[in-house]
Amino acid sequence: MIRIQNLAKRFAARGATPAKPSLASLLGRRPVATVQAVDGLSLLAPNGSITGLLGPNGAGKTTTLRMLAGMVTPDAGQIDVDGVDALAQPRQALARMGILADAHGLYPRLTARENIVYFGRLQGMDAEAASARADALAELLDMKPLLERRAEGFSQGERMKTSLARALVHDPANVVLDEPTNGLDVLATRGLREVLRHLKSPAGGGKCIVFSTHIMQEVEMLCDHVLIVARGRVQAQGSVAELLHSSGQTRFEDAFVHHAFGAASQEAA
Ligand SMILES: Nc1ncnc2c1ncn2[C@@H]1O[C@H](COP(=O)(O)OP(=O)(O)OP(=O)(O)O)[C@@H](O)[C@H]1O
């Protein structure tokens, strides 16, 4: 179970050099603008359920998941993972999460198995248990032929599978994925959907799954609960049916636009 309360993060963003140079710009100091990436966001993601963060570009989805993963420190708010305060005890919280942030962090000279086992060792598993788990995950993710191949040269889909196996090696109760279908073809996307459905089922461990996306179809097909995020805030939440109902729309894309940008932008479209 993951609970986030009133999370906030502001970034300093260096602005452009002004057209009319000031003393500061002549000294090489550019004006600093700020971006409120996440602005009081709360969510509750239960076990045995898929919770989706759906939002346009720049909505604050990745920043939220990076704070959950301990990669970015929030300015304010609380994160609770299975009762562990993730900000006070990040290592204990991370041990309870499998995080798929992107599929580029593999060691190219190691085989898929070695990448998975190495990560298991970092999570405190012994090498034998981690290797047995790599076999089980290769079965689940349909990647057995990849296990003894070096990650160098893996396709996008192959990298995603290896990264997901690495994230799941310690059998975490919570799985967090940032835009997991980015760059995947239709078969790989279907395969990933099947895996996520399995992981949330009792047979798959009844895991708590949280993922971000900007793809409506993913959300319609997978999510039990959807948070529509825009401008760093949750603008609406509920099941797909509830969001359709509360927006008065029949198509989910229209419901999303209504909730994310307001009724006026929908009329403009
Ligand atoms: N390290 C950073 N420095 C400055 N600004 C940042 C930084 N990280 C994120 N931002 C800004 O915060 C806002 C939210 O970005 P974020 O990546 O969380 O959005 P997102 O919803 O994941 O978008 P996308 O779907 O485009 O990936 C954006 O305006 C982005 O430019």
UniProtKB/TrEMBL annotation:
* A molecular function (GO) term: ATP binding
Q: Coiled coil located at which positions?
A: none
Keyword Plastid assigned to the entry: answer is: no
Q: Which domain of life is it from?
A: Bacteria
Pfam families recorded for this chain? ABC_tran
Give the InterPro entries listed for this entry.
Answer: AAA+_ATPase, ABC_transporter-like_ATP-bd, ABC_transporter_ATP-binding, P-loop_NTPase
The protein's UniProt keywords, in alphabetical order, are: ATP-binding, Cell membrane, Membrane, Nodulation, Nucleotide-binding, Transport
Segments traversing the membrane: none
> Start and end of every ABC transporter domain?
2-256
Q: Which family does it belong to?
A: Belongs to the ABC transporter superfamily.
According to UniProt, the name of this protein is: ATP-binding cassette domain-containing protein
Species of origin? Roseateles rivi
